Amino acid sequence: MSSSNGNGQPEAAGLNRRAFLAATTGLAATSLLAKGAPAVAAPNPAAADTAPLALNGGTPVRATMLHAKNPGPQYYDEEEQRELLDVLASRLPFRWDRADGKAINFEKEFAAHQGTKFCIGVTSGTTALVTALGGLGVGPGDEVILPAWTWYACYDAILFHGALPVFAEIDRSMDIDPADLERRITPKTKVIMTVNIQGEPSDLDAVMAIARKHNLKVLEDSAQCVGAEYKGKRVGSIGDVGIYSFQASKTITAGEGGAVVTSDPLIFERAARFHDVGVIRPGHTELLGAPPRLKQIVGSNFRMNEFTAGVMRAQVRKLDRILADQRDKQKRVLAGISDLPGIELRKKNVPEGGTGSRILIWTNSKDQCDQFIKAMRAENVNANHSSGSALLPIAPYIEAKLGVEEGWPSFASARGKEVCYGAECCPKTIDIWNRYVEIYMDPKYSDQDVTDIIAAVRKFYLGVMKS
After folding, report:
1. What is the 3-state secondary structure (H, E, C) of the chain?
2. Residues facing 12 on adjacent strands
3. What is the number of alpha carbons within 13 Å of residue 13 lying toward its C-beta?
4. CA distance to 97, 251, 423, 440, per residue, from 364 (Å)
5. Can you tell me the distance from the alpha carbon of 116 to that of 103, in angstroms, rounded to the nearest whole number?
6. 463: confidence class by pLDDT, cuts 50, 70, 90
7. Cβ-contact 159, 183 below 8 angstroms
8. CA distance 211 to 142
């Protein structure tokens, strides 16, 4: 049983604060990090915190580099194998060849897990975005607001529909800044694309309030946040439509794949048609539960195949376990560094509910951030600037407003020519990105791995940042 020491630090039975900190910085037995494991006395409780940095010739915390692996594939087992073999045995890999196939059942199961009425399985997170915008009826003349820090697919999907991307700043949560978002709204704005980035939800209450005030739709991009929760609801289920990615680096994966979710029947029908050559099949009509309201429309072909759907059915069953393991590693690292004087971590819009995929540590400047990253790598603990997305407004093709072809509708209008891209449209976002050190969490990290991360952070923080 554990208790608090009065300073917010856990205190195991018979273990005082000094011993706890010693243990979580690698100075006592690693086994202490396992629940209920006994402490082993450390010969010198201050040794790791005061040891010379490896960058300056000291001994590294680890002998070899610690790299995080993608979570989903580490949980592959006979369940995924069984699903794949079933498709092979059936010789029916096309999703509509079986009325009770893998894809339709994946859609039912994932919608239930995420708390929505409908789900459409697609080929990627990118095609999920394109499909979701199609479901919202976005087209030329419309504006879509998105954060300046997100993945290229968010911008590209808007361009594919001939709409105009408008960038908003992020705040120190790394998610869209609601205060900046509202000032970007114009009479042409149709959709707010809020991105639940790097495993942490946006300030969804604020985003939804702004959207409802201005009669706008909200697309929740949860590609990097599969399974996370915001105040008891799964992210992706709170906006008008949500999307997820199942690419290899995401929480659950089939290598590629994606999903669109909504509880709005009209958005579902339009998106289902858009992703499937403009028609709606009997399986989706059955899910709709009512006669279709639309006639055939122009569409694409983003259908999920049975092999992908089979793997994803197995992965969805493991999602909560993967999240629990990943969150456990994040919490243990945070417990081992939270006493550092003045340490500032990533702002969280909800205290619990993120995926636990990363830890972000705030620094005083880009130079200090760069030094921190070099020092961590010298200790053989991998660290980076915030990863998995891009500072979109300064990407050369975006700053130059290059469309799919010359005269692309997004930039052909007076408003399209007027809208500002480049560094001048997102100085706050660039500054925030320059200051965060990112440490990726692997759900399968060992106790020793967790201990080493803590020790490496403490060495630099106490030896340099607070010296």
Report:
1. CEEECCCCCEEECCCCHHHHHHHHCCCCCHHHHCCCCCCCCCCCCCHHHHCCCHHHCCCCCCCCCECCCCCHHHHCCHHHHHHHHHHHHHCCCCCCCCCCCHHHHHHHHHHHHHCCCEEEEECCHHHHHHHHHHHCCCCCCCEEEEECEECHHHHHHHHHCCCEEEEECECCCCCECHHHHHHCCCCCEEEEEEECHHHCCCCHHHHHHHHHHCCCEEEEECCCCCCCEECCEECCCCCCEEEEECECCCCCCCECCEEEEECCHHHHHHHHHHHECCCCCHHHHHHHCCCCCCCCCCCCECECCHHHHHHHHHHHHHHHHHHHHHHHHHHHHHHHHCCCCCCCECCCCCCCCCCCCEEEEECCCHHHHHHHHHHHHHCCECCEECCCCEEHHHCHHHHCCCCCCCCCHHHHCHHHHHCCCCHHHCHHHHHHHHHEEEEECCCCCCHHHHHHHHHHHHHHHHHHHCC
2. 2
3. 5
4. 58, 31, 20, 21
5. 17
6. confident
7. no
8. 15
Which pLDDT tens digit goes with each residue over 191-226?
A: 999 999 999 999 999 999 999 999 999 999 999 999
Residues with Cβ < 8 Å from 275, sequence gap 6 or more? 120, 122, 127, 131, 134, 260, 299, 300, 301, 302, 303
How far apart CA 158 and CA 34 sit, in angstroms, is: 47
Instruction: Write the pLDDT tens digit of every residue in 392-413.
Output: 999 999 999 999 898 899 999 9
| pTM of the shown model | 0.89
Strands 118-122 vs 258-262: parallel, antiparallel or unpaired: antiparallel
Neighbouring CB atoms inside 10 A of 8's CB total 9
Alpha carbon distance 20, 42 (integer Å): 11
Structure tokens that stand for 371 in this block = 């030094």
- Give 361's contacts (C-beta < 8 A, 6+ positions apart): 337, 343, 344, 345, 372, 436, 437, 439, 457, 461
The amino acid at 370:
D
